[in-house]
């Protein structure tokens, strides 16, 4: 029959093995969860920033072009009217 020391040694080794296995499993699970959350947050922030920058640039360009065209047309019409309306001397 095995002695108490042998039984305790076997139980100790078994406990160590189970402990290491559980520790590795939990570590991998937590690591994957953190990676998943990190990727999700990164994608969300990236999309939000991209949309915000795109809208800002689009609005800025649109306003700039609109003002430029409006001023150009206004000046052209104004000059044309002056040329047409000024009587010949």
Question: Could you walk me through the main structural features you see in this protein, from its secondary elements to its overall organization?
Answer:
The protein has 89 residues and is mostly helical. Helices cover 92% and strands 0% of the residues. It contains one helix and no strands. It has one helix spanning 4-85. The longest helix has 82 residues, at 4-85. The termini are far apart. The model has no long low-confidence stretch (mean pLDDT 82).
Tags for this entry?
mainly alpha; single chain; 1 helix; 89 residues; rod-shaped
Question: Could you give the topology of this structure?
Answer:
Elements: H1 4-85
* Count of DSSP H/I helices: 1
Percent helix range: over 70%
Largest sheet: none
Order of helices and strands: H
Q: How many strands appear in the DSSP assignment?
A: 0
pLDDT averaged over residues: 82
User: What global shape is seen?
Assistant: rod-shaped
Q: Radius of gyration, rounded?
A: 38 Å
Instruction: Specify the structural class.
Output: mainly alpha
Please mark out the parts with pLDDT under 50 across 5 or more consecutive residues, or reply none. Answer: none
Strand content: under 5%
- Cα distance spanning the termini: 134 Å
Short description:
By secondary structure, the protein is mainly alpha-helical.
């Amino acid at each position: 029959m095995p002695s108490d020391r042998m039984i305790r040694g076997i139980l100790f080794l078994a406990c160590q093995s189970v402990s290491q296995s559980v520790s590795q499993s939990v570590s991998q699970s937590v690591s994957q969860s953190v990676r998943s959350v990190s990727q999700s947050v990164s994608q969300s922030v990236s999309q939000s920033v991209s949309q915000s920058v795109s809208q800002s640039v689009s609005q800025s360009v649109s306003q700039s072009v609109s003002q430029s065209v409006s001023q150009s047309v206004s000046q052209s019409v104004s000059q044309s009217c002056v040329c047409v309306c000024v009587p010949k001397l």
